[in-house]
Each structure stands twice: as structure tokens, then as C-alpha cells.
Amino acid sequence: MSKVAVIQAASIPFDSASSVEKAAAILQRVAANGATLAVFPEAFLGGYPKGISFGSVIGNRRPEGRALYQMYVEGAVTLGGPELEALADAVTQTGVYTVMGVIEKMGRTLYCTALTLAPGQGVVGIHRKLMPTGQERLVWGFGDGSTLGTVDTPMGRIGKVICWENYMPALRQTMYAQGTELYCTPTADDRPTWASSMIHIAVEGRVFVLSACQAIRLNNYPESFQKEFALPGEFAPDSYVMHGGSMIVSPTGEVLAGPVFDEETELYAELDMDLLKQANLDFDVYGHYSRPDIFSLHVDTRAKQVVKLQTEDSGE
Fold first, then answer.
1. pLDDT tens digit string along 99-122?
2. Quick check: is 136 catalytic?
3. From the CB of residue 125, how many other CB atoms can be counted at a distance below 10 Å?
4. Among the four residues 77, 155, 241, 255, which has the most C-beta atoms within 10 Å?
């Protein structure tokens, strides 16, 4: 049996250092409760900019929106930066493998990224969201196939799929094909309908699904953000703008924990890993149920370069 935790908590938007401190305290509780894996929500480090247009409409961008975007960029993390070093230290101290949603800055572009961190090793897995949803495309770049890999851990093999990537059948099949056992989904989707998708994926892939979403109030955001908040309806400062709905589901579709709404909490479950062997008796989406004589899927996992500089001396 493996005990795991899904973290439903509010980040500290635009302040990754403080969010890491909060995550470290959560990992201490997770370790004290005997869990060896913790899954955090999408954009826990950096913040999910719910309800913000960054002053952008078709054909025009306002200066105030650009200033807010600057704040967002300054709150992002870089691989090898101090925030992730501090998080890696917390992972090592607690012994808890961690899946963490971050806003990653690479060059001058931001990516919505899910990281896997291992005790004593730091970052061992990176997945950049392939397709930002809707207006997310304004502020996040597109990942490529080079970050679709899985990570082996003592609990099982971890695959990471972020938010509405879960509605991409080819991406799900890519995760199943790599032997994913712990299907981790940092998300910002807090709708009640999300639970149906998580149950479907657990049964489809015969995987344990660990879905983590923030429960965050409007007043958890900086005042400048609150002024730009553009979602319809009346929101008091202490109103939840993301409601959570985190959950854990077994390969047979049994809901082991959650969904829970409108509170910060940690959800725990003991996973019977033998179910992974039993569940494929009658269905294996990548194996005996796949019909490769009819269907095939090509996945390009090469890293893409926009510019490749070449010199006569180096031949590169």
C-alpha cells in the first residue's frame, strides 16, 4: 500500500518564495501523516490568473495590463532558481515525492509547467502544458513533445497531465503507453463536472488519478489584481474564485477521497497497487483492447528549436 496526498490550497499569487514556504509547511504535515507523494495544484508557484485579461482586447493592449503582466513575470520561477532549490530542500527534508504546478520562466516566455521532485535529487521530471486553454495563450507559451515523459518512483510511475490537456485523447493515450500508474492532474478546473472526467480517465487508463485544484479567495490576490478582476457577477473580497474539487480515484473508478469544495485541505488515500495488475483483466487501453491493426498514434518527442546557430569553425 502507498499513502498519497492531494493538496487543495491557495497559492500566494505572484510571490513564489512565499508559496514555497507554504508548500514546505504542507509537506511537513503530509510527511507526519505518512504520505510519500503529494500533488499540488496547477500554477501553485506563480499563481493562476483567474479572471484577468491583462488589459488585452483584439487589436489593443492597455499599459495597466502590461504592468500587471510584468508582475506576473517577476513572480514566475526558473529551473535551477532559488525558489525551486528551496522547494527541493523541503522535499528532501520530508522525504515526500512532490508534483508541483508552477509558472515557469524560460527566456522571455512563461510556461504552465508541472514538475516532479524527488528527495535528494531535486527536479526529476518536467512537463510543460502543450495547449494553454483560451486566453491562457496570451500569457503562456506552448510546450512540445520533449516533456511528455514519465517518472519512476517507489510508489509507482508518475505521469502528469495539466487541466484541459485531459480532454486531449492522444495525450492521455501517450501517458497510458508509457506505463503511467499514478496519473497526476494539477488543474484549475473547479467545476463539479470535472469529477466525471477524472473517474472516466481512471477507468479508461486503469490508473490512479490524483487531481489537485486550488481553493483560493479573491483577497488572496494582490490588490492590483483584484481591481482588474473581470469575471461576471458580484464577488466579495472573501469569495472563492476557485473552489477546489480535488479528488483521488482508483483504477476501478472508486472515488477514494473528495471531491471537496470551498476549503483548503489535504486529501489522503491508501493506494492498493495490486489493483493495477487486476484491473487489466478485461481492459487495457494500450494493450489487448487497442486494435493497432486499425489505429496508430505517432508522438514526436523531440525538443523544438526556433533558431539553430551555426558557425563555420564549430560546424554547429
1. 999 999 999 999 999 999 999 999
2. no
3. 20
4. 77
